[in-house]
Amino acid sequence: MKKILFAVLVLGQILYGQNPVNKDSLNAKQLDNVVITANRGASLKREVPVAISKVTQKTINETKATAVYEIVNKVPGVLMVNLGNEQHSMAIRQPMTTNPYYLYLEDGLSIRPMGVFNHNALLEINQFNLQNIEVVRGPVSSLYGPEAVGGAVNLISLKPSLQPEMKVGIQADQWGYIRLQAAAGATVGKVGVYVAGLTSAQRDSWMTYSDYNKDNINARIDYNINKSTRLIWTLFSGRYYSDMSSPLNEADFYNRTYKSTTDFTYRKSDALRSKVTFEKEWNPNAQSSLTVFTRDNELGQSPAYTGGIKWTPGQTTAKGEINSNNFKSYGVLAQHNQKFDFLDGSLVAGGLYDNSPVDYNAHQLDLKANLNPGGQTVSSYEIIAERPDIKLADYNARIYNTAGFAQLTFRPVSNLIITGGARYDNMSFDYNNNIDHSTGSKVYDQFTFKGGVNYNPFSCAGFYANYSQGFAPPGLTSIFRAKPGTGGSTGTPAEFYYNLKPAEFDNYEVGGWIGCLEKKMNIEYSVYYMEGKNELLNVRLPDNSTDYRSVGETLHKGVELAVNYIPNSQFKIRAGGTYAIHEFVDFKLSDKPTDPIQNLDGKEMPSAPHWVANSEVTYYPKWLPNLRAGVEWQLVSSWYQDQINTVKYDGYNVFNGRIGYQYKGFEFYTNVMNFTDKLYAYNVTRGNTPTSTPSYSPAAPRTFVFGLQYHLQLNKKKNDEK
Question: Does the keyword Transport apply (predicted)?
Fold first, then answer.
């Protein structure tokens, strides 16, 4: 990786001269932003009937994030939960969850094939290769397919610049984190090239057993055959390895004893993605694209999280596991965009085919549990024996994803836009379950629909309404995992989750925007009501193992608000957040008459805070034009730790500060994360039994991130004159 970074630097030195980078101008006209994700093509934000937010390159550059969650959490209604070392879960119109209800896209193409969801998919992303990030809240299954239920996160990568440029940087903190990054690009004649890479490492942090390494490289070549035809090739290669520290028990958390109970758990990822896109503009009203893509991922872990280690309070033994999930993909995505004179209409239509062979295996680890005094918590786990003979899962399958989609937009009158779209998805797979020696095939298919309207009667205000459907089949790792208490060393035949149903959602939404104070202030709001059926949830059993259940019905409802205010050239103020309620409508938890709680009807879902907000004030002083300074506030209110609503965690308020100064091509910056040194946890969960103890995912103490970045850009016109 270091050789790749050095090569990028050399390329930049060959191509570039020096020219200071101009500071981006402040702009409060958020509704004039062009977005791609909402309609699979360029559209004004005010003309799409969905809740969509765009994080601009300016915001990304000023955030100087060590992990993507620092950027994504600036979007109102979004909480990307930091689980350490860039591991994460998500909460968009859902509780904080690892379930497959989010679609993670890279330039409009899903990072994973349907059926192989991983809540940690964004740890593969190269933060130094982001042009912007678009987040759609609510179902977009009619355009992007299953799993786009809570929303879709589209990470849009940088393109080759017309003028040669290069940037290189380093950042580090006092806890042993360091990252080197470099990027370079240029367009010469018909060919544009862009390369971006980073290498990061963590050593001897505030949390024991939490080292990690990450090496990423992105490359892109644009070949402009002529003014209307182009070929685009992209490549991503990433390697990630992390020690996986365990959650903390309550005493260790409040004593700030950041000690992992494991020293053998890990997560690793080797990812390779490549695609070639042919784009053709037939005329100003018609464009087509054809993308051929491949994916090759090898994922492995020995999990430390609750459920990955199974332990019953008071016992001196426990069970862990080692698992591996590998897949390849070969696919094609075709799309055509057509505009019509009739009613100023436009059509987006296309299809997808994805062939993805996948294999997964998991086997048991026998562990010794060294107990703390009282025997209700564990001080440390030790491996007694690795048991490849005790299989928890072992299957191979070939997934076939096919889909067709279409969306029509037309404008019957000048201020009214009507949108309707539909998609058919068919996920089928042939499988071999090597534990029960069964073979077979399964099919999950669904039509999803959306309809919406935008009405912009004034230059300063507009409204929208939509109805959209969501659809998410269960992941293969859920279907082929042996049920707790079966298989392995239990003496009973293994049973599997062959009868899990796909989750279905109906979303009803209204919203709008207001531009006021001579467009210095923009206000955006949305109100949603989403009904879910057959949601897949994890039920924690007394030994901390996990049972999967398809919930009968759930309800998700909330209000989202974003305010952007730029009173003058020196200040930018952003405030945003959501108030939401997520609850069970029909969920039978147990059939046992001895259990005190049989169903959870009317109870709130766990890990579902009512309030989530993120706001920021940034100062650009006239007396020192190249300085910026900002203060960010993150609020997450209390949530229930368990499904039976007996215990809450108080949530947290945390403040972050950022300051940076540019001198010619250099930028010096410091980020102070959690600058009040608050003790808080990103998530706290527990089981439903009286003996269950909470598990805390702790946040870092006060952290100082120091960085230096250098940007070189050649002014082509001046260079030609020379």
Answer: yes
- Beta partners for residue 572, in sequence order: 618
CA dist 608 and 585 (Å) reads 15
Is the Cβ–Cβ distance between 685 and 89 less than 8 Å?
Answer: no
For residue 21, how far is the Cα from the chain centroid? 30
| Residues facing residue 299 across a β-bridge | 269, 325
Task: Copy the structure tokens of residue 447.
Answer: 């039509």
Task: Give the pLDDT mean for 257-285.
Answer: 95
Encoded tokens for 470? 């969501």
Question: Is the backbone of residue 80 left (phi > 0), alpha (psi -120 to 50) or beta?
Answer: beta
Contact 407, 420 (CB under 8 A): yes
pLDDT higher than 90, residue 550: no
Chain segment 613-624, per-residue pLDDT in tens: 999 999 999 999
Q: Which amino acid is located at 349 in the chain?
A: A
Choice among 5-9, 162-166, 294-298, 654-658 with the minimum mean pLDDT: 5-9
Look at residue 9 and tell me whether its pLDDT is greater than 50.
no
Please classify residue 13 by burial: count the beta carbons closer than 10 Å to its beta carbon, then call 0-12 exposed, 13-18 middle and 19+ buried.
exposed
Tell me the DSSP string of 679-720. --EEEEE--SSTT---EEEEPP-SEEEEEEEEEEE--HHHHH
Q: Answer yes or no: is pLDDT of 3 > 80.
A: no
Going by DSSP bridges, is the β-strand pair 151-157/102-106 parallel, antiparallel, or unpaired? parallel
Helix (H, G, I), strand (E, B) or coil at 39: coil
Query: Rounded CA gap, 552 and 169, in Å?
Result: 51
**Residue 189: helix, strand or coil by DSSP?**
coil
Q: What are phi and psi of 40, to 5 degrees?
A: 55, 35
pTM score, whole prediction: 0.91
Structure-block tokens of residue 443: 């099919």
More confident residue, 301 or 6: 301
pLDDT tens readout for residues 147-174: 888 999 999 999 998 889 999 999 999 9
Beta strands in 96-150 (DSSP E): 102-106, 109-110, 130-137
CATH number of 2-721: 2.40.170.20
User: Under a CB-based contact definition with an 8 Å cutoff, are residues 184 and 220 in contact?
Assistant: no
| Helix (H) / strand (E) containing 200 | strand 191-202
Token pair belonging to 212:
């990690």
CA distances in angstroms from 504 to 170, 531, 663, listed in the order given: 45, 8, 53
- Alpha-carbon gap, residue 155 to 135, rounded angstroms: 9
For residues 55 and 65, is the Cβ–Cβ distance under 8 A?
Answer: no
Closest CA to 713 of 93, 327, 168: 168
C-alpha span between 177 and 378 (Å, rounded): 28
DSSP code at position 598: -
Strand 681-685 relative to strand 438-458: parallel, antiparallel, unpaired? Answer: unpaired
Q: Return the number of other C-beta atoms located less than 10 Å from residue 66's C-beta.
A: 21
- Residue whose C-alpha is closest to residue 452's, from 412, 408, 415: 408
Nearest CA to 170 out of 194, 196, 199 is that of 199
> Does pLDDT of 538 surpass 90?
no
Provide the terminal-to-terminal Cα distance of the chain, rounded to the nearest Å.
Answer: 36
Put the strands of the sheet holding 130-137 in their side by side order.
Answer: 51-55, 130-137, 151-157, 102-106, 109-110
- Cβ atoms of 354 and 114 within 8 Å: the answer is yes
Average of per-residue pLDDT values in the chain = 89
* Cα–Cα–Cα angle for 432, 435, 438, rounded to 5 degrees: 40
d(CA 127, CA 122) in angstroms, rounded, equals 10
Distance CA(111)–CA(604), nearest Å, equals: 32
Q: Which amino acid is at 159?
A: K
Which string of DSSP letters, residue by residue, matches 369-385? EEEPTTSSSEEEEEEEE
